[in-house]
Write a structure and sequence with these properties.
By secondary structure, the protein is mainly beta. Helix content is 10%, strand content 43%. The strands form 3 sheets. It has a 5-stranded antiparallel sheet, with no helix packed on it. Strand 8 and strand 9 form a beta hairpin. The N and C termini lie far apart (66 Å).
């Protein structure tokens, strides 16, 4: 009976023990901020402007969350949300640092010290100040 268990364990080890997982997939850094909108109704914007330069893709959709990539060369992001009746602004500061998770992986961006500079929403909450791949529930929650 012990020999059968030993052979079973060795067979399972040989099947699953040789499976390689890319170390790059385990990188905890995330280079984009997730904004979650807490509202009783569906949130719809006419447009969303990013750093006063251009509109975000698919910005006329109804939203519950919005992902915004953060530029490593900047220290803040300014977002303008336009509706039919009210325009909202959100300015967020952050620190960006390039990191190498593993030597065989591409450099990644570590975003830390996420903080609000200003906003025109009713209120908002910063849920985490360091952006990691372990939390996709929203880094900033906005309340109307």
């Amino acid at each position: 009976m012990r020999i059968q268990q030993f052979l079973l364990v060795m067979t399972l080890f040989s099947l699953f023990g040789c499976t390689t997982i890319e170390d790059c997939q385990n990188d905890p850094n995330r280079s984009y901020m997730i904004i979650q909108f807490a509202h009783n109704e569906i949130v719809s914007f006419d447009s969303i402007r990013f750093n006063n330069l251009y509109r975000l893709d698919a910005d006329t959709d109804t939203l519950s969350t919005l992902g915004v990539f953060l530029d490593p060369q900047l220290v803040r992001v300014d977002l303008d949300f336009f509706t039919d009746s009210v325009d909202y602004q959100l300015s967020v500061s952050y620190n960006a640092q390039l990191q190498i998770f593993e030597l065989d992986c591409n450099p990644t961006l570590k975003i830390s010290n996420l903080d609000t500079i200003g906003h025109s929403f009713d209120s908002l909450v910063i849920n985490q100040t360091v952006l990691t791949n372990s939390n996709f529930n929203g880094d900033v929650t906005v309340y109307f």
